[in-house]
Amino acid sequence: MNILTWLVIIPLLTITGILLVKDARQAKIVSAFGMGIQLIVSAVIVYLYVAMRKAGITDEMVMISSYEWFKSLNIYYTVGVDGISVAMIALTSVVVFAGIFASWEMDDLRKEFFISLILLATGVFGFFISLDLFTMFLFYELAVIPMYILIGIWGSGPKEYAAMKLTLMLMGGSALLMVGLFGIYFNSAPDGGELTFNILEISKITIPIEAQRWFFPFTFVGFGVLGALFPLHTWSPDGHSSAPTAVSMLHAGVLMKLGGYGAFRVAMFLMPEAANEMAWIFIILTTISVVYGAFGAIVQKDLKYINAYSSVSHCGMVLFAVLMMNRTAMTGAVIQMISHGLMTALFFALIGMIYGRTHTRMINEMGGLMKVIPFLGVAYVIAGLASLGLPGLSGFVAEMNIFFGAFEHPDTFRRVATIIAVSSIVITAVYILRVIAILLLGPVRDHHFDHLNDAKWYEKLSIVSLLAGIIYIGMAPLHLSDIIRESVMPIVDKLL
Amino acid sequence: MSLESFTIMRHELLLTLSFLVILLAEVFTGEERKERVRGLAVIIFAIVTAVGFLPLPEGSIFGDMYRATRTTSLMKNILNIGTLIVFIQSYSWLGRAENRDRIHEYFMLLMTTLIGMNFMISAGHFLMFYIGIELATIPLAALAAYERFKNRSAEAGIKLILSSSLSSGILLFGLSMIYGTTGSLYFSEVAAEVKDMPLVILGFIFFFSGMGFKMSLVPFHLWTADVYEGAPVNVTAYLSVVSKGAAAFIFIIVLFTVFPVIIATWEKTIWIIAVLTITIGNLFALRQKNMKRFLAFSSIAQAGFFLLGFVGGNQLGMTTVIYYALVYIFSNLAAFGIVGIIADKTGRESMDDYDGLYRTNPGLSIAMMLAMFSLAGIPPVAGFFGKFFLFVAAAEKGFYVLVTIAVLNTIIALYYYLLVVKAMFINRNETPIEPFKSDSMSKLGLAICLAGIIVTGFASGIFEMIRNLSYGI
Questions:
Q1: Which residues of chain B does A164 touch, with a Cβ-Cβ cutoff of 8 Å?
Q2: B-chain residues near A71 (CB < 8 A)
């Protein structure tokens, strides 16, 4: 069997395993074990992929296999990967692995928690390996719906409201997306012949421009909702702040990337002419996302809200870079997805751990935590520095590529947009440093916090696995960007 | 009648035979053994269902008044499956003391309606069609009033008989106009004579309204909620699933075979009715607290989704209608089954009573969640595939606006289906429903439904088989 299919089977087996074991302690061991194997399989896939490219295989997608499903509609279960999806798979398995350890001490309904979490992961993995729009859409919805249960049961604050808002907005996005997919499907054979959902086959033909004009906005906005496109980002702050730690990690770290990934892999790749025509609208919206998200983060007092708004800003940057339609910016967009995925997962993990100790997320109620919990404090600082783009960490590589690529564009409009968007870096520095100063430095403000315990082994494991990724990308960016650059080419070629 | 005509009418004749067997069994069992009729009826009906799947010779008898094709046979089999599940689900409810002396009536009445539906689906002549529809409706009114000692049930029966006789009257009036313009009631002859002229259109609209009553489409839906709430849960399940499915089947057959010439007219009508039905059904369902009323309004919205398969007159449309009916049978019967079990054990029917159900009855809650997801069209359960393909069918003919309205409506629907999930999994409750064990027959019914919910989607063979038996205009 194709190794990619294992990425879907292993989580399903893990879920079965969790169902079979008796108590909750075993459940978490089974999940950790299953996701550990998943991590190894992902590493093997990355290795195989790099080996294939070294061997000189230049196919757009590799490791393809295809099984017939609904014959009369020409729906296949088709999987395959290129550099972009391989990178996303690696990201997902790291974040899921870290997420399992970050929720090691769940108290209520633990079995159900891990089942829902891994089901969500199944959807994400399936999405990234799918080459058939139908299966891709199926996995997309499969990834969204467990969020409702996860936030609703294990969340905090106004969780019922947040869960409902998030689910309905994301499913609303997927409803638009569905219409877009129908448009693509029914125009996939303009010269007669068989209609298809296969991305590679559709990319070879040109969808009639009238159809593109209709269905590009549906598809792009549909994915954009998940990618926190302004003004459809409002689910994100509420959802992330109410979600339990591991869910915030997975959601901001991975699930939001489904939006960015889909936006260029489906919307722009398959409908390039309309993408070019309408890019200006979305460039304006994403520029607003980038700057507005950053400003939003400045005024928040709740750690999770700060990070949620910063996610809006950073994910906006992904869509912004994608719309610049050149190789450098696109590569930057993918690196940004990976970098932000690791970084924001780390942030949410740390926030969860700090909250577990101090029982507050309000920054003005805390202070001087660096003295009490140095491990968590240092990790927070590193994540913060990555977020504001310090060289040597992953954020720098991503933002450098994005803004360099964006400014490369000769178009004045795009340059102006770039200048505006670049300003977000400064704003990011303001809110990151502000949090670090208030939260970690200075005297310990509340003497209840004098004797907090520092990170336990499973928390350290979770943190270190994410930190390793951030530092690795920052120190050796070419390993990642080489994989991505080649795979970005077919998409960029179609857009020019 | 030759032997062959017996095999052609296999479904109807077997049902009539089972009807007689139950009647005799009732006469020959003593007072204290009446309960055994239940088991007998379920077993007989399981056999009837199984026999229905044997390959069938196609053909027509009674001078083309009755036609049997592989398509009609498929539709009848789907209805049989639904009825079988309803029988199994009714098992423990029928064992109650107050129902004990009327067990045979329940089965006989249900079988009679099913015979009517089978005749309706096989009709090749409007008179046969009309006889079928009446045979299918009148016993249903008696069934709705089955718990006649309850005011609400008696009221439901009266409401159903009055509104359905009105709708039959309207339907007949429409048929008379069609007869007046075409000079025949045979489907084949009417189809050849139908032209785009005012009287035919008027006749068609009356016919449409009559069918609208049976399928409970907006604006002919007002009887639905009261009848569904008042009737016993199992009868409601039957009404909302089997009865509605049969109406959808015959409606699509008549549209595709008798009225293909005036497709331009009925396309627009159905477009409007579909939007109204889906939207209004959804908006009313939002506010319901009683689970039966809630499912009643959600089933109105679901009927609107069926219309998406009608609108294009394409083969894919018919396929998806039949396929969705199958999916809908499993999903809705699972939902009604659970509501029935809980009402049976605890007498509680309000959505607030379901608060915290997961903590006390996890199995039932998960089953209910799957049923809700399937009704809402969430993967990986079958409802997702059903809805997706219905939308594909409408999009194939270019009805993108309709599809967009429909997909946005699925979000409203998702909201209220999630409310049930929220009640069971998230809400806390001081006095939750106590943990209880359901009896084995209820479990069996639920297990069949859940297996259907999961398998029907992934097993593409089912869809392909239906596709091969469907036709377009």
A1: 415, 418, 422
A2: 460, 464
Closest CA to B312 of B267, B250, B252, B247: B267
Contact between B378 and A141 using a beta-carbon 8 Å cutoff: yes
Residue A211, chain B, CB below 8 Å: the answer is no
The Cβ of residue B31 has, within 10 Å, a number of other Cβ atoms equal to 7
DSSP A193: S
Residue A172, min C-alpha distance to chain B (Å): 6
| SS3 assignment, position A393 | coil
Contact B407 A179 (CB under 8 A): yes
Cα gap A431→A301, rounded to integer Å: 10
Do the chains contact at A171 and B411, CB–CB below 8 Å? yes
A368-417 pLDDT, tens digit per residue, is: 777 788 888 888 888 888 888 888 888 888 888 888 888 887 888 888 88
Supply the pTM of this predicted model: 0.92
- Overall domain count for chain A: 1
With tokens 């240092």, the residue in question is: A378
Q: Chain B within 8 Å of A200 (Cβ-Cβ)?
A: no
For residue range B80-111, list pLDDT tens digits in order. Answer: 999 999 999 988 888 887 877 788 888 999 99
Residue B270 · residue B256 · CB < 8 Å? no
Distance, CA of A189 to CA of A181 (rounded, Å): 14
At A70, is the secondary structure helix, strand, or coil? Answer: strand
Q: Using an 8 Å Cβ cutoff, are B269 and B251 in contact?
A: no
Residue of A135, A119, A147, A126 whose CA lies nearest to A11: A119
DSSP-assigned beta bridge partners for residue B309:
none
Q: Return the number of other C-beta atoms located less than 10 Å from residue B213's C-beta.
A: 22
Q: How far apart are CA A105 and CA A113, in angstroms?
A: 11
Angle of the B382-396 helix axis to the B400-425 helix axis, nearest 10: 170
**Coil, strand, or helix at residue A185?**
helix
**Sign of the torsion angle spanned by Cα atoms A61, A66, A69, A75:** positive
Q: Which residue has the tokens 């194709």?
A: A2
Q: Measure CB to CB from residue B407 to each of A145, A164, A178 and give the nearest one.
A: A178
Q: What values do phi and psi take at A130, rounded to 5?
A: -75, 140
Model ipTM value:
0.90
All residues at 6 or more sequence positions from A437 whose CB lies less than 8 Å from its CB, including other chains: none
The answer to whether the CB of A133 falls within 8 A of the CB of A181 is: yes
Half-sphere exposure (CA, 13 Å, Cβ side) for A197? Answer: 27
| DSSP secondary structure of B41-85 | HHHHHHHHHHHHTS----EEETTTTEEE-HHHHHHHHHHHHHHHH
Write out the residue range of the structural domain in which residue A64 sits.
Answer: 3-495
